[in-house]
Design brief:
Chain lengths: ~750, ~425
């Protein structure tokens, strides 16, 4: 490309823009102040003719950067998609004429707004470069699957069947995990009446015979280095180290059964005939084909299943969640007894019967009832194993009575504890402020020793972060995007991320395999993973000026940045999700993207016209998350909800990318108020980059101190959590700031 | 995308249904450069989730994830969206499917910029199906604030009116075309993904609950629309009989679900939906409300249990283990009265409430007749097995009664299955 920058500016007069705005004045602003190469006005820019006009100019070399001054960047995206050049969009429709009243009195301020948006786009476009991949990519497309239970086997087979090489690692000597220990499984096909075979043997057979799958048993992961497309993994194969090259990881490390030994009321250690569900599966398997007897060899006449043992309770040593699979499992196990001998009395004591296995689950529950399984709604207070017989005492909730009966076998539904490794949220990092005790201590008190599974050599810890209050499950917290973990290219699947049954875990594994395939393909091309899928831009780190403070390495929500041997940040492109949180974190502004930088936003701020104090026209800067707050403002404009004409809105990738320098520069140049709009923080965070908005909030609380030193009122900078549905509230927050300024007066730092 | 521009090859995937599941499968396939045609029978994509105010358990807004999905669709060169298009037949095999598609006229061309110049001319009102007929809309409409495609649609009832003529005059982009006609087209595809979703069970069929007789008996989906500040009641929970705010609300679980006379299956989402909706009441009225949940089992499976506990700890919410036998109405107050037996202790009750919310379940939209005969459908009408017809897959609530999270999980898995077929076809091509 010719090195001379030629900025073509295209002003649209459609949708009322030509009627409401003085286009010739905007053209003058663009050329004289914005110093763009040329301006063209068009009646209908998004129409075929308008688009062709732009395309011709690009093709003929008349321009190599363009400004589209028309509608919001969220609309007509396909029309204004010119991948060969950088594009800046000046939002005159939603941002100006639709958010300002169509009155004569308002015309002057509306025009001033439009002029500023032209200045801003002119400034932005000068600093935007067309992003290109870094060239550092390596393309190893092999997929590592950690854990060879039903989830891992499924992920391995599905990836292999799609043509990818798989390394399957299992810490035990045999494949199949928990499923291989089952006698049979809940039915998956109509009419959902009887248990069916697990099918695990044929899966194992397929895995063992697949040319695409290399199986390692008795193997754990000693070290994981690198990034998607170029992981180097050191395996510990029964003491012998071996290194494999990997593109992406599916973590299917499964669960551990919740051990009921400490729950004294159930007397698990008091009798061999008090078993967990898993014990019973093995007991059936061990006696395959024969009539199952008690552990001491007696005929079984009565079996009692107790649901929610040590589960769904906040008591110490209990699991607070529901493990989901156990109700269905008890139905199945009771039917297994009935199939052996219909005269065996089988009782299930439950509080809420929850068959998790899809629409057929209800039919299976009915099948249990039809086969004579008795379901009692109640809570068990005690299982007495002291005499010859086992005695179950329970409160019957229907009869409102305390009752007890004898049973030959008692089966405890104890649930699952995820094997999710060490919570990266709890990793202590040098340079980080101390974590509060509450944050650290209360998790992982489930008496399972926590060992790292992946042994990542990442700056931010050896494993994936757990969800805050997520009871040890790995963080993958988006309802709409369930696979998005906080470590790019490492996908958790199966019960490690939430309790699941076999059916759901198999689906989960298949989806995770797809995500792993996507990441290796995209990493090879320098393309970002969700949510900025396909983005080729990435942050560049300038060592010159870097003080090696390490903030970026701590704050990156995805653990993309390590500390290099030279003590400078060591960036790993394919781990990066392009949110810009590192840019916002950097106190010395040495981190920038080609198309999103300190300058692309900072220069917009600097080029906004600040009227002097005698004009009595305040200026408000609004930095809005482009995923939620900015769309809310767009939708407000669509409903013609007006906001103060003194605001200038700039969309940001994430509030986490906001540099404190933008805020201080704005105040120094005379902005009277600043409104920051980001997503919800906390346990139920809605930030698409997990903790961007949380970090922004923390940083802005520190800005308040700066304001005080400047003798400015802290209310001049307000940070809000704004949801995409805040269509009325978002403009209102801007208006509130306008009111505040009216009250406290203009910023004295205008020049 | 106009119909003329729809091109497909034997490696193209056609996804039928553009709800959250269909969108997900399409986006996940396109992420790897695969061509997808995403077909939706409604004028706008997004399906059921666009009608929801919040998701459980995070109480976040569906529009938020929808926006991210839209960003991906808008930026994709590989996804073609075809709206108002109804698939009426599918035949063929992997690499060689033919879909017959009936494309209904929008009467608006792609030149529409949604500028709204046509709308001041409009006076007539029509039933707003998006809001379940609970409110009226104009004859030229976008059904929600984040509607995609971002163009208007003309109600056929507006055709031939002076209003439309005025609207046409006001349009600067010549976007109105009242002569647009229904078209029948044939699409070829290498892979088909069926993601036609679900319909809330028709509450009127549950005779004893009097949904069609009593004003103050509504469905959970209707309550969801009421919560939307842009919905029919502007975010208020109003009794249809007198438009006063309902402060004593009862939820009836399994309204039509887990019932051999209606839907034999558990619809899975309705328990959590009702728990979520009690939270709306708390949010709206602080302490000034009462909610009662009549249930058989509360199926707040897995981590949802935390949400159930939170609601249990709300002193204003009462749980009654009972399948409500019948509803009558108080003539004077128009309060519905619930009759039944509280099975915990076997107490009979006749409880009066301001408003009854029937937690209706999921009825599958699968129409077996349209599908190739190899596709196995279970008695609840969900697609159970597609393995006899490689290249044909089902996604989301075409396969099972799933909540949003599990729909996305399932439809991501389905994208991989589709990819395996595409690879298979591609191998044959080369």
């Amino acid at each position: 490309m010719n090195s001379e920058v030629k900025i073509g500016t295209f002003l649209c007069k459609g949708c009322g823009l030509g009627d409401r705005l003085d286009m010739d004045q905007l053209e003058l602003i663009a050329t004289r102040e914005g110093k763009v190469t040329y301006v063209k006005q068009h009646d209908y820019l998004c129409g075929d003719e308008g688009v062709a006009l732009i395309q011709n100019d690009i093709d003929s070399g008349e321009c190599n950067k363009i400004i589209v001054a028309a509608c919001s960047k969220r609309v007509k995206t396909q029309a204004f998609n010119f991948p060969e050049v950088s594009v800046a969009r000046a939002n005159l429709r939603e941002g100006v004429i639709w958010s300002q009243p169509d009155t004569e009195e308002a015309a002057e301020l509306t025009q001033e707004m439009a002029a500023d948006y032209i200045r801003m786009a002119s400034a932005e476009i000068k600093f935007i470069q067309l992003p290109s991949a870094s060239g550092e990519q390596e393309v190893n497309k092999n997929i590592l699957v950690v854990g060879a239970g039903i989830t891992g086997l499924t992920a391995a087979l599905e990836a292999a069947n799609t043509g990818y090489k798989v390394v399957l690692v299992e810490k035990e000597a045999t494949l199949g995990g928990m499923t291989a220990k089952l006698y049979n499984r809940i039915p998956t096909k109509s009419p959902y009446q009887q248990p069916e075979d697990t099918g695990i043997e044929s899966m194992i057979e397929k895995v063992n015979s697949s040319d695409n799958i290399t199986v390692y048993t008795n193997t754990t992961i000693a070290k994981t280095e690198g990034a998607p497309g170029r992981f180097n993994i050191t395996l510990d194969n029964d003491g012998t180290p071996e290194t494999v090259s990997i593109g992406a990881i599916v973590q299917a490390s499964g669960f551990t059964l919740h051990d009921p030994s400490h729950l004294e009321q159930f007397s698990y250690t008091g009798s061999d005939n008090i078993m967990t569900q898993a014990d019973l599966e093995q007991h059936f398997t061990a006696n395959a084909g024969a009539q199952v007897k008690t552990k001491d060899g007696k005929e079984i006449k009565r079996v009692t299943f107790i649901q929610c043992v040590g589960q769904r309770s906040e008591e110490e040593g209990h699991l607070s969640y529901c493990s989901g699979y156990c109700c269905g499992t008890s139905v199945k196990q009771a039917i297994n007894f009935k199939q052996q001998n219909p005269d065996i009395d089988t009782k299930v004591i439950y509080t809420h019967l929850r068959v998790s296995t899809g629409v057929g689950g209800e039919d299976f529950y009915r099948s249990g009832q039809d086969q004579g399984v008795v379901f009692l709604k109640g809570t068990v207070s005690n299982v007495d194993a002291s005499g010859d017989k086992l005695t179950v005492s329970y409160k019957d909730i229907i009869l409102e009575e305390d009752l007890s009966f004898e049973s030959d076998l008692v089966i405890l539904a104890t649930g699952m504890v995820p094997n999710s490794g060490v919570d990266a949220n709890l990793t202590e990092m040098e340079g980080e402020e101390e974590k509060s005790e509450e944050e650290g201590a209360e998790e992982n008190d489930l008496s399972i020793p926590v060992k790292s599974i992946l042994n990542l050599d990442y700056r931010q810890g050896t494993d994936l972060p757990h969800l805050i209050n997520g009871k040890g499950f790995n963080d993958s917290h988006f309802i709409c995007f369930p696979y998005e973990t906080a470590r790019t290219g490492i996908y958790t699947a199966g019960p490690v991320r939430r309790p699941m049954d076999i059916h759901q875990a198999s689906e989960d594994a298949t989806g995770a395999a797809l995500k792993a395939i996507q990441v290796v393909e995209n990493a090879g091309k320098g393309r970002a993973a969700h949510p900025r899928s396909g983005d080729l831009s990435f942050p560049k780190f300038q060592n010159e000026g870097c003080t090696q403070c390490g903030r970026c390495t701590i704050e990156c929500p995805f653990g993309a940045i390590d500390i290099g041997e030279d003590k400078y940040p060591k960036f790993n492109e394919s781990r990066c999700r392009r949110c810009g949180t590192c840019m916002g974190a950097c106190p010395v502004r040495v981190i920038s993207f080609e198309n999103y930088s300190i300058d692309t936003v900072g220069q917009q701020i600097k080029n906004i016209d600040i009227p002097d104090e005698f004009d009595e026209k305040p200026r408000i800067l609004c930095l809005a998350c482009e995923n939620d707050a900015y769309p809310a403002l767009d939708m407000a404009a669509h409903n013609r909800i007006t906001h103060s004409a003194y605001v200038r809105i700039i969309p940001v990738r994430c509030l986490g990318s906001v540099s404190a320098s933008w805020v201080s520069d704005a105040l120094n140049t005379g902005f009277d108020g600043i409104v920051l709009m980001g997503c919800k923080t906390g346990d139920d965070y809605q930030c698409h980059f997990i903790k961007g908005s949380t970090l922004a909030k923390e940083r802005m609380s520190k800005v308040a101190d700066t304001l005080e030193t400047m003798s400015l009122e802290p209310v001049r900078v307000s940070t809000y959590e704004v949801a995409i549905t805040d269509i009325q509230r978002a403009p209102q927050l801007i208006n509130d700031m306008a009111d505040t300024i009216e009250e406290i007066g203009l910023n004295p730092f205008k020049f | 995308m106009t119909i003329e521009k729809v091109v497909s090859s034997n490696e193209t995937t056609v996804v039928v249904g553009a709800g959250i599941s269909g969108m997900t499968t399409a986006i996940e396939l396109a992420n790897l450069g695969n061509k997808v045609i995403l077909i939706e029978k409604e004028p706008y994509i997004g399906g059921r989730v666009t009608q929801l105010y919040k998701y459980f358990p995070k109480l976040c807004h569906p529009t938020c994830g929808f926006e991210i999905n839209l960003q991906k669709i808008r930026a994709s060169q590989d996804i073609t969206v075809l709206t108002m298009a109804e698939v009426i037949d599918v035949a063929g095999s992997e690499g060689d499917f033919t879909l017959k598609v009936k494309v209904h006229p929008r009467y608006i061309k792609e030149t529409c910029t949604a500028c709204g110049d046509c709308t001041p001319a409009l006076t007539s009102e029509f039933d707003d199906q998006y809001n379940l007929g609970m409110m009226k809309r104009k004859g030229i409409y976008r059904n929600n604030n984040n509607a995609y495609p971002n163009t208007y649609t003309i109600d056929p009832g507006l055709l031939g009116t002076d209003e439309l003529a005025e609207a046409k005059k006001a349009c600067k982009f010549d976007a109105i075309d009242e002569d647009m006609a229904e078209e029948n087209i044939e699409l070829t595809a290498g892979v088909v993904v069926w993601a036609t979703g679900w319909t809330p069970y028709d509450a009127a069929k549950i005779q004893a609950y009097g949904y069609d007789r009593f004003d103050n008996v509504i469905t959970n989906i209707e309550l969801e629309r009421m919560m939307d500040p842009y919905g029919p009641t502007g975010g208020k929970i109003l009794r249809p009989s007198d438009n006063t705010e309902a402060k004593n609300v009862a939820f009836i679980q399994c309204a039509g679900s887990r019932d051999e006379n209606h839907l034999p299956h558990c619809s899975r989402f309705c328990c959590m939906a009702s728990l979520k909706q009690t939270h709306y009441l708390r949010e709206k009225y602080d302490d000034d409300f009462e909610a009662s949940i009549y249930y058989i089992d509360i199926r707040s499976i897995d981590r949802f249990e935390d949400f159930y506990k939170k609601v249990q700890n709300d002193d204003n919410v009462t749980f009654i283990k009972s399948k409500v036998a019948s509803i009558t109405e108080d003539d004077e107050t128009k309060n519905p009265i619930l009759h039944g037996v509280d099975t915990e202790g076997y107490h009979r009750y006749s409880n009066s409430h301001d408003l009854i919310v029937l937690a209706v379940g999921m009825e599958s939209n699968v129409e077996k007749d349209i599908l190739p005969e190899q596709i196995e459908v279970n008695r609840s009408n969900y697609i159970e097995d597609t393995s006899n017809l490689p290249g044909f897959y089902a996604a989301g609530c075409s396969t099972d009664a799933l909540d949003v999270n599990r729909s996305v999980q399932q439809s991501t898995a389905t994208a991989l299955r589709a990819l395996q077929s595409i690879n298979h076809i591609s191998k044959g091509n080369s």
